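Lecture notes, unit on binding sites. The following record was shown on slide 14. It pairs a sequence with NAP.
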Amino acid sequence: MTVSGNRNIAIVGVGSLMSKSLAIWLASLGWNIALVSRSEKNLSSIANEVHQAQQGKGGKVVYRAADAGEPTQLKATLDWCVQKLGGKLDVLSYNAARVSLSTITDITPDELEQDLKISAVGTLIAGQWFADGNANVDRIAEGEWPVFLVTGGILDKQPEEALASLSSAKAASQTVSRLFAKALPEKANILVGMPLISGRVVSRGDEGYSEEFDADRIVAAVFKPFFEDREKRPEGKEGWIVERVL
Ligand SMILES: NC(=O)c1ccc[n+]([C@@H]2O[C@H](COP(=O)([O-])OP(=O)(O)OC[C@H]3O[C@@H](n4cnc5c(N)ncnc54)[C@H](OP(=O)(O)O)[C@@H]3O)[C@@H](O)[C@H]2O)c1
């Protein structure tokens, strides 16, 4: 059972099917939710859906357009989220990525640099910002820990030829996440969770859709367990699972 109400989450890169499904689930529990991605129009429409999922629970839903690949903008936006939600974050979910076809013989330096900025530098800045006094550590005495969640896949270990730039960037970003998973519990009282999806996530009804990689199923299988496990942890990080793969 995940705790209801009075908890704060910021989701960076919220347009994807999975992160939207995550936001809708948390809205149904009455969490306060901040949504961040670059398109104001998409954010506004997602915020509407998230509001509807609240079913009168009354949590806050705020959104702001920002480029997570720009460190100054990302930090300022996360500061804004804390201010608008009215408290430090219980969970920070970093999900921003540029999913675009590319081959290793054709990638331009600019493309690779852009992917590294969004995936690896963005994860780095988000994790450092969270560890710098922005995580809600007030409930640790009751066994409830803040979590830094970084969405990923298996491209770091099994790079795909048609996703050359993204595979390279995810290898870097997932290393950043694994290093945070070692450092943050001691340094900042934050646990790190990596929901990893090994297949393609496609909208129901679209070509390539599969039940196995349905967004709601992914949230249930590899996101929700992190929310359940971050509660009732008198022993802190002992027994905490960092990576969950579907
Ligand atoms: N989809 C899959 O099949 C799949 C499979 C395995 C793993 N994953 C992982 O899941 C994560 C999300 O991927 P996805 O496929 O779901 O991608 P997606 O549908 O393209 O969603 C990524 C989101 O990030 C936002 N975004 C992109 N660049 C951004 C930036 N610079 N600043 C802020 N927001 C930005 C995009 O919105 P804007 O364009 O409006 O900014 C979009 O909402 C990635 O870590 C990916 O590796 C996905």
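Take-home: The helical segments are 17-28, 40-53, 71-85, 109-131, 164-188, 215-229.
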